[in-house]
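Sample intake sheet
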Amino acid sequence: MSEPTSMPGPAAAVPFQKSLERKRNFCIIAHVDHGKTTLSDRLLEYTNTVAQRVMKAQHLDSMDLERERGITIKSHPVSMLYPAKDGVIYELNLMDTPGHVDFSYEVSRSLAACEGVLLLIDAAQGVEAQTVANAHLAFGQHLKVIPVINKIDLPSANLELVTRQLEDILAIPSEEAILASGKSGIGIEDILEAIVHRLPPPRWANHPATRLLVFDCVYDAYRGVIIYVRVFSGRLRAGEMALMMSDGSKTEIKEVGRFFPQMQKADFLEAGDVGYIVCNIKNVADIRIGDTITLANQPAKEMLPGYKEVRPMVFSGLYPVDTSEYEKLKASLGRLRLNDAAFVYQAETSVALGFGFRCGFLGLLHMEIVQERIRREYDVEIISTYPSVVYKVIMANGEEIEVDNPVELPDPSHMQAILEPTIRATLHIPNEALGDILSLVMEKRGLCEHTENLDPHRLMLTCLLPLNEILIDFNDRLKSITRGYGSMDYELGAYQESDLIKLDILINGEPVDAFSCIVHRDKAPYKGREICERLVEIIPPHMFKIAVQAAVGGKVVAREDVRALRKDVTAKCYGGDITRKRKLLEKQKEGKRKMKQVGRVSIPPDAFVQVLKNN
């Protein structure tokens, strides 16, 4: 296809003839913690892409947070050269993918940039919820799937069960499976040979126009936005004008290059290559993941398939514990936004918490990671309010509005209906946990649509659940009930009408907006009592009794009282008539009544932290 070039890797000394037939693009998909990153480490070692002296565990995970938690948050591409047994040197482009359900769109983009996948299954745990979900994503994009049974050296490995699950659940012949261990390096050569001989060469390369798929991007302080692309057809060089097909914007290409795994500048990118391009773009929000890039002077007529907008699903308010750190928090959110287009925020104020920001996230893990990065990388202590989802409100005049903050919910007399988002969840559980899990699903207002036996010991449930019910503790309780053996994957469903109301928390008659939430009418008394009981333990006693109430509209549904500090005013009475004591007690009572009318309740900042953390 072009002139011979010398590239890094095991055969750097041998001229490598670039050819479309010698390129293989693939990614590794699996359930969380089934060994994707460890396997990619072994592939980098075996192909000498990374020298042994600089090799480290989880090499493609660049964040400290990824290393600590053992999860991949951001996908990392890398190109490798592999001299196969047939004497030909192949170029292998690996796109590492996140495993958590929050980042399923990133997984789907990485899959769109490949021709095949390695489907990794833990030999001890078997087929899990996200294994099935990711496998169906791959089948849906017509990719070649190579099953790899990982961790076969574990004492608890059950190969017979896993191969049977492979055939029964995923309909993949068990003889296609490769037995491997990412930790000890077993089967790595077999995997590389399977990639070379079982996966097809790059597809759609004969398209007349230049087309590149954007599957990720990062922000660099010196070069602006660096776009990760897979070239499907044509060729791209620095100095050419590129066209973004989703919005028609044009930009000049400053630099193109490849990943080995560090970025290395190249003369051009051509069909089948995975690499990066640097443009004049300074804001990550201007790049849409899944977009198609083409040449401005010879544009393609149709985009590559699969592009869609990524929208945040979970919203929460972030406030600095120390109000003087507001500007610092604002700057840190701005920097995080530069590297994460799915994260959105806007300023808001709260009577109780002061100035802060309303932030949107892809899911709970995404929210947790952003909050942890703010604390760790920017040294700002923050409070997060109760997470909520995006509700659709049908007004009495037929107008439809979206509400993500309970404070913005219109007056009930002006509303016709409230619609809430739902999810279709797939739960993989042990047989003995079925009764408890069904109780949990019913408690969360869910409906079990389908039950399927996976093997003698495991079941798969398909459930329809409201999204706001699984936000807080659903996954934790699932793990607790199943002793860690349960797993969950979900996809967003349709909006459905529900009997939802706004629950206000009143302290001494004043509403505290930080504790407001939108709940189902049946759950309002329980939820209100729970928050009131917690607040009573946290708010310090004042000189007068404080009422902590939960109210729906004008109706109080739960109440707890913070006891008053009592001074013994009768201590100085050593004798005499009882009327002396009564007179002093009446005087004290009158003083407390006046104080209650004019007194203000001071809620310590850590009260918000404790209540919201527990929620």
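Comment: The CA atoms of residues 121 and 127 lie 6 Å apart. Confidence is low (pLDDT under 50) at residues 1-15.
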